[in-house]
Amino acid sequence: MKKIIALFFVIMMFSTVCGAFERPDTSKWWRLAASSDMEYWIDRDNMTFSDAQSAKYANAWVLVHDMKDNTQKFENLEINLDKRQIRTLSYVVLNSDGSQKESVNTPEEFRDITPGSLDEMIFDSVRRVYNSKSDFTKVKVKKR
């Protein structure tokens, strides 16, 4: 019995040392999709919305966990809710130890959202949050 307990503690210490991915707080993050080597999450608490004369926009953060190399990519996205377009504003990739591997702050051009894609899952999630606000003043809205 002592050997089993000792083995359990060794396994627990090894998994902690290996820098295993800690899942995001599910009260804040929605899991969008997962495969055998990737997980995608969206931060529903920090979505912001803005209203321009030409369209309504949303800003959201997406977390991509690559299980092959145990990195995390935090991507800041802007979504045009009226034209069904999306673009990356910036992103940062972190190694398993939390150190920065890569960072880009150059906004991309808007791209159309492809049906059935991850972009569409993100769009649908953001649109769901936007539509769930019956009182527009409760949504974090800024005029452009």
List keywords for this structure.
144 residues; alpha+beta; 9-stranded mixed sheet; disordered N terminus
Question: How would you describe this structure to a colleague?
Answer:
Strand 3 and strand 4 (56-66) form a beta hairpin. Mean pLDDT is 82; it is low at 1-19 and 134-139. The longest helix has 16 residues, at 2-17. By secondary structure, the chain is α+β, with helices and mostly antiparallel strands. The protein starts with a helix and ends with a strand. The protein has 2 helices and 9 strands; from the N terminus they run αββββββββαβ.
Quick structural summary:
The protein has helices at residues 2-17, 118-132; strands at 29-34, 38-43, 48-51, 56-66, 71-80, 85-94, 100-104, 111-112, 141-143.
Low-confidence stretches: 1-19, 134-139
How far is the N terminus from the C terminus?
A: 66 Å
Query: Quick one: biggest sheet?
Result: 9 strands, mixed
H-E order: HEEEEEEEEHE
Helical content, roughly? 10-25%
DSSP summary, beta strand count: 9
Mean pLDDT: 82
Decide which structural class fits the backbone: alpha+beta
Number of helices: 2
Radius of gyration: 19 Å
Shape: globular
Strand content: 35-45%
Oligomer: single chain
